[in-house]
Specification:
alpha/beta; five-stranded antiparallel β-sheet; single chain; six-stranded mixed β-sheet
C-alpha cells in the first residue's frame, strides 16, 4: 500500500495519474480524491473522519483486494487452461474493443487491427460463425466466431487456427489430429510383440524406424502409438516425394510426432531438408519416426538419427492369424460408412481369404473386402461370392498390369481407379488429379 500526502487539491489529478501508470487501481481518500479517481477509471473509496469510518474503509479495501486477487488467480488459471487446450483466442466487445486475448500458437495476434475489425463487422452484419482471413504472412487462418450474452452487453469470442491440412500451403506436409485410439489387430504372435513394444513408455520419445512392405500398416502403427501415449499435439506427415524444404515458419506448437515417409531414393536436397526437420523436432521434443520399405544405415547417418530403434512390420503372409479379425473390422467399417449388409464371412470363404497371397497386404485385403461387401446383399459373405469376384492386386514390385478380360467399361474404370488409388497411397486428392477428375466425382465413383 502506497501512502501519499497531498497539500493542495490541485495536486490530486497528477498524483493519481502517476499512480495509475504504476499499476495502482484502488484509492482511499477524501471526497475530492475519490471523485478524481472515478474520472480516471480507478476504484475510489471514501475515507471519512472518525476511527470507525477509517477502519471500515480499510476493511472495504481488504475485501476489494481479496476479490481482485481471486479474479487475477482465476484469470491465470483460465490462461493456462487455454494453453493446455491450445486455444488462440481474442474477445471483443460489440463496439470492437479488445477485452481479452490469449496466444499459444502465435507470439502475437496473427491479424492486423484492421483485419480483426473487418471480421468483427462481418459477424455483426451477417451473423457469420466461420470466417477465413489471411494473416500477416498471407496464410489463411480459420476463425470461429461465437456471440455470448452478458449483462453489460454482448461479447464476441474469436478462436483462431490455421487449417489442419497444410498441403495447400506446404507441398508434402500435412497435420493429422487423432481423437480416437485406432483399432490394432494383434492376434498373431509377431503383432502381439510389436504392440507390446510400442506401448512401452520409452516408445513415446524414442526415434523409430518402421520398415515393411507396401500396405503393412505403418501409418496405423504411428497413429496407435501417438494416441496410446496420450500426446496432446498432432502428427506431422512429411512425404519426401513431394517435400522440398522444411519451412522456418511452421506452427511448431501443434505437433508432437513427426512422421517422415520414405518411398524412393532420396536426393541430396531432400537429405538436407530431412536433417533440418529432424533437428527442429529434437529441439522441440517431438518424436521422429521414419517409415519406408527399406531404410539404409547410410541414410540414417546422413540425417543424424543413427541410433533410432528399428521395427520390422510383417506382411499378411506372416500374420495369417490376424486375417479373420481384419476382415471383420473392415466389414464393420463399411457397414457403418457405406451401409453395406455383410457383417460376417462363411468359414470356407474365410479359409480362402487366409490362403490368398496379398502383394499389397492390408491395402489389398481391405479393397477386396470392400468389393465383396458392396456385392453381397446378405449378411454373410459366401465362398460363391469370392469365386464370382476374383482378386486382382495393383501392388507389385513389377510394373502393374490391368487385366480387362470380359469386364464392362464400368468395371474397368473401377479397376483403374483402385489401382491409381493404391499407387497414391489412398490419397484421394492425388488420385483425382492423376485421373483428371475432381475429388467429389472420385468419391461418387468409389461409393457406387
Amino acid at each position: 500500500m502506497e501512502v501519499v500526502t497531498l497539500k493542495e487539491a490541485t495536486e490530486v489529478e497528477a498524483v493519481l495519474l502517476k499512480l495509475k501508470e504504476e499499476g495502482y487501481r484502488s484509492v482511499l481518500g477524501d471526497v475530492v480524491t475519490v471523485e478524481a479517481a472515478g474520472k480516471l477509471g480507478m476504484n475510489g473509496l471514501l475515507l471519512q473522519s472518525g476511527k470507525e469510518s477509517i477502519l471500515e474503509s480499510f476493511q472495504e479495501a481488504k475485501r476489494i483486494f481479496k476479490s481482485q486477487k481471486d479474479s487475477q488467480q482465476l484469470l491465470r488459471v483460465m490462461r493456462n487452461l487455454l494453453k493446455i487446450k491450445k486455444q488462440d483466442i481474442v474477445i471483443l466487445s460489440k463496439d470492437g474493443r479488445v477485452l481479452f486475448e490469449n496466444w499459444v500458437s502465435f507470439s502475437e495476434s496473427p491479424l492486423s487491427s484492421a483485419a480483426l475489425q473487418e471480421i468483427h463487422q462481418q459477424v455483426l452484419e451477417k451473423e457469420k460463425t466461420i470466417v477465413k482471413m489471411a494473416d500477416k504472412n498471407g496464410v489463411l487462418v480459420e476463425i470461429q466466431a461465437d456471440r455470448m450474452k452478458d449483462r453489460d452487453g454482448d461479447v464476441f469470442i474469436y478462436a483462431l487456427k490455421h487449417p489442419e491440412n497444410y498441403k495447400a500451403v506446404i507441398p508434402g506436409m500435412h497435420l493429422e489430429h487423432i481423437s480416437l485410439l485406432p483399432s490394432l489387430v494383434t492376434e498373431s504372435p509377431v503383432m502381439k510383440g510389436i504392440k507390446k513394444l510400442i506401448e512401452e513408455p520409452a516408445m513415446a520419445k524414442e526415434a523409430l524406424l518402421l520398415e515393411g512392405e507396401i500396405g503393412t500398416g505403418k501409418k496405423e502403427i504411428v497413429r496407435y502409438l501417438h494416441h496410446f501415449h496420450q500426446k496432446s499435439g498432432a502428427i506431422i506427415h512429411l512425404s519426401l516425394e513431394e517435400f522440398e524444404t522444411f519451412p522456418p515458419r511452421f506452427d511448431i506448437e501443434e505437433a508432437s510426432t513427426l512422421l517422415i515417409e520414405l518411398k524412393s531414393k532420396t536426393t541430396d536436397d531432400q537429405i538436407v531438408s530431412v536433417r533440418s526437420a529432424v533437428s527442429w523436432a529434437q529441439g522441440k521434443n517431438v518424436q521422429v519416426i521414419f517409415a519406408g520399405t527399406k531404410i539404409s544405415n547410410e541414410f540414417l547417418m546422413e540425417t543424424g538419427i543413427s541410433d533410432a530403434m528399428r521395427i520390422i512390420l510383417p506382411s499378411l503372409a506372416e500374420r495369417k492369424e490376424d486375417v479373420p479379425f481384419l476382415v471383420r473390422q473392415f466389414l464393420l467399417e463399411f457397414h457403418q460408412s457405406l451401409g453395406t449388409q455383410a457383417i460376417k464371412v462363411r468359414e470356407d470363404a474365410m479359409d480362402q481369404l487366409k490362403q490368398t497371397e496379398w502383394p499389397g497386404n492390408l491395402m489389398d485385403l481391405k479393397m477386396y473386402v470392400k468389393k465383396l461387401a458392396l456385392v453381397e446383399k446378405d449378411y454373410v459373405i459366401e465362398k460363391t461370392t469370392l469365386l464370382s469376384i476374383p482378386f486382382h492386386s495393383a501392388c507389385s514390385s513389377k510394373e502393374p498390369k490391368i487385366s480387362y478380360g470380359n469386364q464392362s467399361l464400368k468395371e474397368i474404370e473401377q479397376q483403374i481407379i483402385e489401382q491409381v488409388l493404391k499407387e497414391e497411397d489412398f490419397n484421394q486428392t492425388k488420385t483425382a488429379q492423376r485421373l483428371g477428375i475432381n475429388r467429389a466425382t472420385l468419391w461418387r465413383k468409389l461409393n457406387k
